[in-house]
Specification:
five-stranded mixed sheet, 13 strands
Length: 334
């Protein structure tokens, strides 16, 4: 079976630390219906909330399967959440619990993997063979596509690109290491770099200096990007530093993986006109043997915040179809 007639619609759920967003997605990647709810803080309450969201959607649509996009470590069988820093699950068999409650097949997926799969099937990564997705927000999430298949590693947790150490003894990272890439190339990094530059010469930026002076905690990556858009000199320096670290990091990743396409996603990607061209130049200048090899195309994501839900829904569809006809539907690579 290849047409998906027995799984006409699936639900994809983005399980975030703040909100649950669940969407009905059809086989063309179109979002037909969405419900949202705050994320509860206990495992039982969270699973209750997920079940309610799915049942709400099932009351209006014929649903064949459910996929959860989770920001955390998912095991190689996509059934258990090993650890999720912003969710109350640890070594929790979430897929089986929800399958038992809903009577529907449920799969789990790392949120960056789900986003890459959505972009590959319906967005910016369409036509790519070996693709890196770098989702830049508070930190860096990442995913790899190898010859058209998701690469999850031996134990389901690849790749943690944001925690590659790029500066020995550099900025402290919540992961416990110092100098991780995401400490220099993320929304958080924009703020940290701005604060460092303001400390050396606060008079160069009346806007950012005034805001950080009133309330240091009020400065955000979005505000720094907005100030750069308005021509603030310190904010422009911050974005230039960000572009340099993005280009260097992508060159590092490309030296290892040699992708034909890189997709930049996440909240910071909305400010791409401020940094992406410079990042491409740093990437081209830093990659090993640049004059003797083809460089990856670098694009921004197309599906934005819906990517995780669309990808999780599509992977759930593929998992069910693979069970029905394992010859015609190849599973994503581990």
């Amino acid at each position: 079976m290849t047409g998906g007639e027995d799984v006409p619609l699936t639900v994809g759920i983005d399980v975030g630390g703040t909100n649950i967003r669940a969407s009905v997605v059809d086989g063309a990647g179109e979002v037909l219906d969405t419900v949202t709810a705050p994320t509860p803080h206990s495992a039982r309450a969270l699973e209750d909330g997920l079940a309610r969201a799915v049942r709400d959607l099932c009351s209006r649509h014929a649903i064949g399967a459910v996929g959860l996009a989770v920001a955390g470590f998912v095991d190689e069988d996509r059934a258990t959440v090993r650890f999720a820093p912003h969710l109350p699950w640890e070594d929790a068999p979430v897929a089986q619990r929800l399958t038992d409650r809903l009577g529907l097949p449920v799969i789990l997926e790392h949120d960056a993997n789900a986003a890459l799969w959505a972009e590959y099937r319906f967005g910016a990564a369409a036509g790519g063979r070996n693709v890196v997705l770098v989702a830049i927000g508070t930190g860096i999430g990442a995913a790899l596509l190898s010859n058209g298949q998701l690469y999850r590693g031996s134990f389901g947790v690849a790749p943690e690109l944001g925690h590659l150490q790029v500066v020995p003894n550099g900025r402290a990272c919540p992961c416990g290491k110092r100098g991780c890439w995401e400490r220099y190339c993320s929304g958080t990094a924009l703020v940290d770099t701005a604060i460092e530059l303001l400390a050396t010469d606060p008079q160069r930026s009346t806007v950012l200096a005034r805001e950080s002076g009133r309330d240091p905690g009020s400065l955000t990556g979005r505000r720094v990007a907005g100030a750069a858009q308005d021509g603030d000199p310190v904010a422009l320096d911050v974005m230039a530093d960000f572009a340099r670290w993005l280009g260097l990091g992508l060159a590092f990743v490309s030296d290892i993986f040699d992708p034909d396409l890189i997709v930049v996603a996440g909240g910071v990607s909305s400010s791409a006109p401020l940094f992406l061209d410079d990042a491409r130049e740093h990437y081209a200048a830093s990659i090993t043997g640049a004059r003797h090899r083809r460089l990856a195309r670098i694009r921004t994501a197309q599906l934005c915040e819906a990517a995780g839900m669309i990808g999780a829904a599509e992977l759930a569809r593929a998992a069910v179809l693979a069970q029905q006809d394992p010859v015609s539907v190849a599973p994503a690579r581990r």
